[in-house]
Design the sequence.
C-alpha cells in the first residue's frame, strides 16, 4: 500500500504550473484539470474489476428518487404497481 502525500498547493495553482508557456496554446488551469479528470475517468473505466465493483456498489447502495409529472399523478393510483403511498416512503 502506498501513502499519498497531498501537495501544499490547491489544484488550480498546481495545474497552473503545467499551462503551456506559448500564449497561443495556453489553456486555463480549470480546463487542464477538466481534461485530466476525463483522462483518469477513461482509464479507470477500462478496468473490468473496478467497473464491476462500481456496478455492485450502485446496485446495493443506490437510491432513486423521482417526482411524478401531472400526468403520472393522474394515471398512477393506489391500484397501479408503481404507486407508493406516503407511509411506504417513510419506512
Sequence:
Amino acid at each position: 500500500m502506498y501513502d499519498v502525500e497531498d501537495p501544499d498547493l490547491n489544484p488550480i495553482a498546481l495545474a497552473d504550473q503545467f499551462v503551456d508557456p506559448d500564449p497561443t496554446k495556453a489553456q486555463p488551469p480549470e480546463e487542464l484539470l477538466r481534461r485530466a479528470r476525463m483522462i483518469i475517468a477513461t482509464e479507470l473505466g477500462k478496468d473490468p474489476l473496478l467497473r464491476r465493483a462500481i456496478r455492485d456498489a450502485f446496485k446495493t447502495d443506490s437510491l432513486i428518487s423521482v417526482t411524478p409529472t401531472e400526468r403520472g399523478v393522474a394515471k398512477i393510483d393506489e391500484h397501479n404497481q408503481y404507486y407508493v403511498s406516503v407511509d411506504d416512503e417513510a419506512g
